[in-house]
Amino acid sequence: SRQDPFSILVGCLLLSLQGAIVTVARPLALRYVVREVAAGSLTSANVLLYAFALSCLCLVDGLFFAWGRHLDTDYASVYFFRHVGTIVLDKCCRAAPDSSRPPPTNLVGSDIPRIIEQLRTLGMGPACIGGFSGAIALLAVILGWSSLIGLAVVFGMLVVNMRMGHIAKRAEKQNLEAADFRVMLLKQAIEMIKGLKYFAWEAKCMKQLVEARRKQCFKVKKAQATLQMSLNLGRLSPFIACLATFVFYGWILGNPMEAGDIFAALLVFMSMRLSLIIAPNAYIAAQQILLSLARVEKYIDALDFPERVVIPHSEGLMADVQFQECTLSGVRDAGSSDGSGFRKEFVLRDVAMQVNPGTLVAILGEVGAGKSSLVSAMIGAGAITGDGARARTRQRVGIVPQKPALLNSSIYENIVRGKPFDADRFAQAIDVAQFARDLEELEDSVDTIIGERGTTLSGGQQMRLCIAQVMYDQPELVILDDPLAALDHVVGSHVFDTLTEYIGASTPETPRALVMVLNQMNLLSHFDHALWLENGAVIASGTPEEVIKSLSLDLETSQRTNGHVAEGSKQNRHKWDPLKPAGPNRHSFVGSALHVDMVAMRSVRCVSSTLTDIGSKVESRATGSVNFVVYHTYIKSMGYTLAGLFIVISLLAYTSMVFGDRWLALWIRNSDQNEDTDAVYPLIYTGAVLTFGFLLVVSSWVFAEGCMRAARTLHDECLLKVLKAPMSWFEEMPTGRILSRLSSDLGTVDLHLPHSLDNAVQLTFTVVVMLVTICIFAPLVAFAGIFVSVFYGVLGVLVDRTNREIKRMRDRAMAPIQTNLAEVLSHVSLMRVDDGSLRSFFMERHARYTDIQNRYMFSSTSMMSFSTFISYIIACVFVFTSTIFLLGFGDPEPEGVALSLAYVFLVPYFGGMASSVAVMCGHNFTSLERLLELKSDSVPEEAWPPGTTFLEEPTERSGEEWPSAGSIVFEDVSLRYRQELPLALTNLSFQILGGQRVGVVGRTGAGKSSLTTVLFRFVQPCGGRVLIDGRDTTSIDLQQLRSSISMIPQQPVLIQGSVRTNLDPYGEVQGGDAALLHALRQAQIPDLDLDDTIDVSGSGISSGECQLLSFARCLLRATKIVVLDEPTASVDTATDAKLQKLVRVSLANRTLMCIAHRLQTIIDFDQILVMDAGTVGAMGTSRALLDDRSSYLSKLVDGGGSDTLRLTLEDLLAKSTEESL
């Protein structure tokens, strides 16, 4: 796609010649013909000769214009989009995070397309230069120094327009900043949509986004007003220049008004109209290009991550880390999925660690101690300043972050990630991650498509899939950031066993080691080395026994707060045999039928991995012409009154324009007949021109006001529909696709659609009134006018029909580019330790998607250039026939011929522009069509009451308080997430009494989280019902239902802003800051203040603190029912014990349903519900279930192959019984 610079020079030369033809050759030809008419020397042969010459002049004009545009901008646009987009993506793969930089998704989705659009405007610069140069010379020849008056007006208006360019630049910058802020809020809302629905925050979020949109629309209106004023000055400049020149030349100086000279000058000034519009627009375009380029440059020039220092194989170390007094800045949180957040600063002190081959190293500490920061520092994911900083690791490192980073694709693609396919390594990775049974239960097995959030998988499945990603690479050093927190104890035990077996197979030739952030103290004895962190400093280091002794820890007590058990010790680890099937307690992928098939289809899998598109629900694409409903919706959103007023005023404006030109012809005819009326003609001509200018400005203001009203209304309606959509829609719809509609498509509706629509209407009225005027002097021209109208219409329809489909495909092709970029952001920390294959995977995928996008863009722009040339061919026919009708029939008068011939030249000129602008307008309406898909019936809607807008004030509920007891009953509930998926819950029935505490346990994927899905009505059950205090939840208003239940979700819901904002985002808590601080302290977060800032990813605090913050928010919501989904998964054992006590005290008398993998968390609850494959495996008291060796809970407890967990649970249960007595 590389462009030859010579073609740009040729294109500029052709456009310069075209500008000279328009402003020099055509007026001179007009002047000559009018003089021939005035002299009465016309013959039939001359008429044919003149008609042929004028039509050829029109054809050369069109050839130079179309060819020059094609060489100048069509190729450049493709080259620019591919290479600048690739540069941004490449920077995204290695850039240190910085919240002050523009988001890369905005750069690729908005700034770069904006630059390309402005390049097409800027590409007209050579034509303007050629046109201005020729116009100045010709006017000096025709009118002498009197032309300086008109030229002074022209250039004076240009100066004003240049000044307006500066204003437009500032307005555009403010608009971009406002758009960035709105898109950031929107992106945050979409990514935390489940949290919004948990807490019934849709209405508050809607108001926040509507307010941000209102502020942005104010900036858009300012930018639009500046652009419209610039356009109007360009439209008015020729008329004001003609007025000043002709009044000075004919009235003040008293020079004879010759029709040939006057209308040749008129044609020069009118031909300069496009240049007068383009010149300031090109200046504004240059300013906007510089602004967008500055944003791109700001992103590209940002600091990269420091180079990761690799330990050579000869040293024999796996990792060498030392920080004496060092500050980490720009460290992405390991749990950040969007890459937008980062820990601004964290201090590591007295940290020293060396990892030898074959060893397991544990990193321990309380919440916020700096465990994840140390992991980030190890791989160089942040800037380290200070003395004694050293972080080196082996070349091949695999890291599993706290929050899984997944592709919006198949399970297969998520594991392989563009690397060469190896069926054996694939099977080994599946077995290490204990994912074989999950693949058996999934209908499409390894080809199952998962969303950006991994929404078809549970949290534990997502974590194990990340482990499979790492193990497929067979790394030398494995780094895991608390991976077992999301796994139940049986699966966690098996995963830990296989990981230790993998490390146990370390040899001098293939050394291996493991570093794990650990909160499961019962596993500590299996490690060779341990570090205990506190406030970023290592306070204890050595063997597990030395650390325990140094800190006076009671390991036996610590083990009672954890549920992961792996029998054995570091001295008798099993040797890892990659092709050995798993033991009797595990499901094995090695040797399975699918494994055998994958080995047989090795080559097919390898090829398909390079061709697979981003896996998601296939994006729908409209076909055919834009539906009339789209146009009607836009007009309706504008307001019928404003739309009708705009049409009427515009028609009156152009009627006054033609009246002024016709009056000018009368002035020329009668200039020497009656000196008493000399002042009447110039005064009326002046009034007509000023009236035209006034009505033009008013019409554009009315139109801009209507367009802004439409933009706000359409945004609010689409946003409302999105927020009212069910979770199933968000699970299938990639974030990039939603953002592309509410950012790039909405940006087109904001600026480009009003601009093109206004131009289309103005040019159409210009052509119509000019044709009517020509027909007054030569009625036969009406036939030529009909010919032109029909062929322009046919051409417009053909081009629009084809180009519209291309534009739709082009718009559709942008979504995968955006989604790929979002996935790059979520994988940046992984690319820090990758061998380059992951980066190559994203770069190759970006190149593939960009090529598709460029194919459509180049086809579209090339077709526009070709259609322009075809329109000039049609214009040649019109010029030829019209010239014959004007000169060859009747007795033509010089003034009428001069005016008509000037219009004959201008009608195809403006007609071609109108046709092109109409096609562009149609393209922009496809963006509106895509935007309106968000408010169509294709977007499902939850069961909100009819007329809900989220903007109305909430009404006070009357009657008794609900729920009063908090009882929950599931009656034969069955749940299916999507029609093609198997049942997640099957005839599930159980009862929770009001005030009871019920713990829910089960293997990952057993259906535990599906209980909350049904309870919150994220998905309607396909059978059965759920009752709360005897009322069917489907009969309860969603807002009331969800606001009556408190939730601590598995993934914390965090908001950009302060801690105060996160605890009470909408000012609902009674008691002010005192209540918020009390909740913080209750949740065991002593180090956070209300004014501390948290990034959207929560990376300003540790993952454990994020979970505790969610706990504090729950304490502030006085609801009768509380649901907890792994509330203590990311906290250390000491904090876990404190929170368990807090649950017993602060949440007493509330109905609790707690989903947990740590059985110790819920062992003292009133009831235990054991889930198994979407059904009730067992339910009863802890004592009864433990005593019954045949119960599902006993089998779950004994599934790890150890008696340690049972003994621990027995001790905890006995202790709880004593305390209750």
UniProtKB/TrEMBL annotation:
Record SUPFAM superfamilies: ABC transporter transmembrane region, P-loop containing nucleoside triphosphate hydrolases
Region span, Disordered: 559-581
Keywords: ATP-binding, Membrane, Nucleotide-binding, Transmembrane, Transmembrane helix, Transport
GO cellular component: membrane
Matches recorded under SMART domains: AAA
InterPro entries for this protein: AAA+_ATPase, ABC1_TM_dom, ABC1_TM_sf, ABC_transporter-like_ATP-bd, ABC_transporter-like_CS, ABC_transporter_C-like, P-loop_NTPase
Principal location class: membrane
GO MF assignments: ABC-type transporter activity; ATP binding; ATP hydrolysis activity
Domain ABC transporter: 321-560, 968-1198
Parts of the chain that traverse the membrane: 6-26, 47-67, 132-160, 233-252, 264-286, 640-659, 679-704, 760-780, 869-889, 901-921
Protein location: Membrane
Domain ABC transmembrane type-1: 10-288, 645-930
The protein, known as: P-loop containing nucleoside triphosphate hydrolase protein
Species of provenance: Noctiluca scintillans
